Amino acid sequence: MSTQKSNNRTLIAIIGDEDSVTGMLLAGIGETIKETGERNFFVVDNKTEDNEIVEAFTNFTENKKDIAILLINQHIAERIRPLVDAYQNAFPALLEIPSKDHPYDPEKDSVLKRVRKILGE
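The chain above was modelled as a monomer; its predicted structure follows.
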C-alpha cells in the first residue's frame, strides 16, 4: 500500500453521470484551472468510450496530486472494473457511489471486497 503524503490533497474529484456530477458541483466541489482548463470532474454518458473513462481515472489517481478523494459511480466503475479493482493507493481514496438510476451493490464494491478478504470472509 502506498504511503503518499496527504498534505496538499484538498480536492474531491468525481467520475459520474450527469446527475451525480451536477449534484456534487452544486455542493461546491467543482474546481477548474483557468490556465489549462483542467477539472476535477468528468461526466460520463451513453456516448463516452471506456478509454475516456480510463484516461480520467488515470489522470485523477496518478497525475493530479491535489485530489484526496475520488468518487465514481458504481455502474461506471463496472465499465473499468479491472482497473478499479487493481487500484490500491491510499491517496486519493477511491469510493464507489450509487446513482439515481443505478442502486449501490456492496457485492461489487472494490473496497468492501478487500475488507472482506482481510477479515477472511
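The first strand starts at residue 11 and ends at 16.
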